[in-house]
Structures are given as structure tokens and as C-alpha cells.
């Protein structure tokens, strides 16, 4: 969506707080922030929206395919998963259940990645007379849908799921070029990786890169992040997905 249609900057939710409900600067509370659909167990996932403000809020819910190309997130229209209802008006203090319905399961043993966008629309009396949808806040929640015969291995399940476990497999390298020095992370595994509490390990100690969320690397994708000035080497340690323990990553 063109930035000219935005009233405020898009908001990406701090997904490293995966076990918590989430509230942005506005009055809308959203939970859970990590919905999951496993085809062997369910055909939909629940997403709750709550208005904690003093005025009614009009909301639009969309589900877009999520890919990563050229070190950037790409969101594309799709028809495999839909949000129901796609529009809602939330009165103050009220909640709305949105069903994320899986109409077309992934192939057996595979996983698809999506983003659920919840747009908080401008009140009618304040909408500019421009072409296009006008909104004042956007909330973005990741959604993963697992095909039959597999389950997402998030590192914290007390009992294994049914079928094949899907987990990320990360490799890293550090490259310095004319545009600066970057940490490159490639995910060669079949499941997404959410990285938080990322540190560089040196003989002299630890150097934090991200105390909270660094970002995601989707399956078969590569992302990069700038390194601090003067840093060209070091071992990378990070907390992956829901794992409580940080792990040291392998180099490419």
C-alpha cells in the first residue's frame, strides 16, 4: 500500500513477546500474537480484538501471503486463508473474535507463512477526500499454517506433535562492502525462525546486537542486518522462536 494512504507509520508488533497479548499506542489490544493452524488438528485459529479506548473503532482484517526477497518482507494477496469477519466495529470495552480460516491446507509436510493485517480505520468525519483506504494504525501479526503429517517444532512443546517436526536451520556470515558491514542469516530449514536476544561472542566478551526482537528469517530465505561499526567477526548467539535457551548458530 502506498505511503500516501497512511496517516501514521505502519506498526509491526514486537513479536518476541510471543506469550503475551499486545497493545500498541492506540486503544486496540490483540491476542494471541502468534496464531498457528496445524492441519492435523484444526482448520482455523482464533484472533481476539479488544477496544480499550473510549470511542468506537472500525477495523479491517486481511490475511496476506508473507515472503522474503532481496532482504525485505513481501506481502501478497492470497485466497488460501481468510479472516472472518473481514470488517468490524468495536464499541468501547467490547471484544471481537476473528476466525482465521484455512480454506486450502498446504501440501503434506510443508508450512506456509502469512501476515494478518488489522487496520484501524479513520473515523468517517476525519477521512480525507482521497482515493484509497485511509487508516491511522496498522497491526501486523504472523500466522503459520502447517500441512498434514507435520507440526511446528517451536522448541517448547512438552510432548511431540503428530508427524514430522518442522524447525528452522540457520546459517550466518558477515560481509563488509561499500554499503557497510552486515550480518547475513540464511534459513535452510522448513520452518520460520524468529530471532531475539542476539549477541556476538568474542574472546573478550559479548556484544549485544538486539536485546529484544531482531527479526524473522522465513524458510528458504536470507535476511541481513547492519553490524556495529568496526565489527567484522564473532560467533552469533540467539534465542530462536520460543526456546528459552540461546543457541550458537553455525556459519555458512
Amino acid at each position: 500500500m502506498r505511503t500516501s494512504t497512511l496517516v501514521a507509520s505502519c506498526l509491526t508488533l514486537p513479536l518476541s513477546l510471543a506469550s503475551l497479548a499486545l497493545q500498541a499506542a492506540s486503544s486496540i489490544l490483540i491476542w494471541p500474537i502468534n496464531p498457528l493452524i496445524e492441519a492435523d488438528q484444526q482448520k482455523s485459529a482464533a484472533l481476539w480484538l479488544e477496544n480499550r479506548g473510549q470511542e468506537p473503532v472500525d477495523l479491517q482484517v486481511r490475511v496476506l501471503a508473507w515472503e522474503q526477497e532481496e532482504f525485505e518482507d513481501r506481502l501478497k494477496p492470497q485466497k488460501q486463508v481468510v479472516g472472518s469477519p473481514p470488517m468490524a466495529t468495536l464499541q468501547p470495552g467490547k471484544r471481537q473474535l476473528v476466525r482465521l480460516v484455512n480454506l486450502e491446507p498446504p501440501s503434506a509436510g510443508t508450512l506456509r507463512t502469512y501476515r494478518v493485517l488489522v487496520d484501524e480505520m479513520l473515523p468517517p468525519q476525519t477521512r480525507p477526500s482521497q482515493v484509497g483506504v485511509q487508516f491511522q494504525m496498522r497491526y501486523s501479526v504472523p500466522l503459520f499454517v502447517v500441512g498434514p503429517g507435520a507440526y511446528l517444532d517451536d522448541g517448547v512443546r512438552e510432548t511431540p506433535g503428530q508427524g514430522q517436526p518442522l524447525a528452522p536451520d540457520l546459517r550466518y556470515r558477515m560481509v563488509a562492502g561499500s554499503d557497510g558491514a552486515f550480518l547475513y542469516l540464511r534459513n535452510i530449514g522448513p520452518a520460520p525462525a524468529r530471532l531475539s536476544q542476539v549477541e556476538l561472542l568474542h574472546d573478550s566478551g559479548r556484544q549485544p546486537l538486539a536485546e529484544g526482537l531482531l527479526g524473522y528469517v522465513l524458510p528458504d530465505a536470507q535476511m541481513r542486518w547492519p553490524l556495529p561499526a568496526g565489527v567484522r567477526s564473532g560467533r552469533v548467539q540467539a534465542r530462536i522462536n520460543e526456546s528459552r535457551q540461546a543457541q550458537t548458530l553455525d556459519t555458512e
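The radius of gyration is 20 Å. Residues 171 and 252 are 5 Å apart (CA to CA).
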